[in-house]
From TrEMBL:
Entry keyword set: Cell membrane, Membrane, Transmembrane, Transmembrane helix
Full protein name: Probable membrane transporter protein
Entry keyword annotation includes Ligase: no
Chief location category: membrane
Organism, scientific name: Skermanella aerolata
Coiled-coil features, chain-numbered ranges: none
Length: 305
């Protein structure tokens, strides 16, 4: 089932793309991440140009995140107030990221920057998450003592403090806004919702209850990815509508099943599985960077659109 992608200027197996969208949607609902950390590399692996993969993937994240948030909303696992504060920073980060993306694309360095960003960010954060989650599971088996809801750190004492009733937090609004800003940058430059960073940051820096993290993270990702999609299409012409539609269909269906599956895992178990996925993708991309490609040279003919 070959389908032609007009912006990417290539044909792909439509069924394969649908399955990829479903798998990523399942992970989105299960772990509270946008799934872009997996989908963007997968699109690159099947031959989609990195710039098109990043721009189009942001579109798919909108639908997958909406579907996941609706499921979490029904279970009352969304802190809307905290999500809106994160969105303020996320909108600014997305706008700045799209501008940087355009500059790198003009310089011809965007493909290298995308690959290096994935290897560094995914490898580092995934490794830290894996060590922490495995340690938490080991400690949980050795002792059953009840722990505090969260630990207070110096960042919580920054100015502009706000109370978030749903998450039982009284912290500086600058902290969630800053986390959202970094997530917005990642949406624009890497084509990811930033969930692999937002989720651990919300748990370890904000001290949010694990049950609320997934829904709140996806709530913020909806809007940052929508902004990124509009700006990428308008300024950089890197959104392939046909590819986005295929990913949307699979993502919406998969997210519903993923949300149901999330209830069968404890917090540390979910974090461990997410960390393994993140590290695996980083290793695959690292291999791509160092192994010589089959065709060492290629000729690209620019086409005026």
């Amino acid at each position: 089932m070959q389908i032609y992608l007009p912006i990417a200027e290539m044909s792909v197996n439509g069924l394969l793309v649908l399955i990829m969208g479903g798998v990523v949607g399942f992970l989105s609902g299960m772990f509270g991440v946008g799934g872009g950390f997996l989908m963007t590399p997968l699109l690159i692996f099947i031959g989609v140009p990195p710039a098109i993969a990043v721009g189009t993937q942001a579109n798919q994240l909108v639908a997958a995140s909406v579907s996941g948030v609706l499921a979490h909303w029904r279970r009352k696992n969304v802190d809307v107030k905290l999500g809106l504060v994160m969105l303020i920073g996320g909108a600014g980060g997305t706008a700045l990221g799209v501008w940087i993306f355009g500059i790198l694309q003009t310089l011809g360095q965007i493909d290298l920057v995308i690959a290096l960003s994935y290897v560094l960010f995914l490898g580092g954060i995934g490794g830290l998450m894996l060590v922490e989650s495995v340690g938490a599971m080991i400690r949980g088996r050795k002792q059953g003592a009840r722990r505090k809801l969260h630990k207070h750190i110096w960042l919580h004492g920054l100015p502009f403090k706000m109370r978030f009733q749903r998450s039982r937090l009284f912290i500086s609004a600058l902290l969630p806004a800053g986390i959202g800003f970094v997530g917005g940058l990642m949406v624009a430059i890497m084509g990811i919702g930033g969930g692999f960073l937002l989720v651990p940051a919300m748990i370890y820096l904000l001290g949010m209850p694990t049950a609320l993290v997934a829904g709140t993270s996806l709530f913020q990702i909806i809007f940052t990815t929508a902004i990124a999609t509009f700006l990428q299409a308008a300024l950089n012409n890197t959104v392939d509508v046909m590819l986005a539609l295929l990913l949307l269909v699979g993502g919406v269906v998969g997210a519903q099943f993923g949300t149901k599956a999330s209830g069968f895992l404890r917090g540390e178990q979910a974090r461990a599985l997410l960390a393994l996925l993140v590290v695996g993708v980083a290793l695959r991309l690292a291999v791509e960077l160092v192994v010589p490609p089959p065709n060492l040279y290629s000729i690209a003919i620019p086409v005026d659109r």
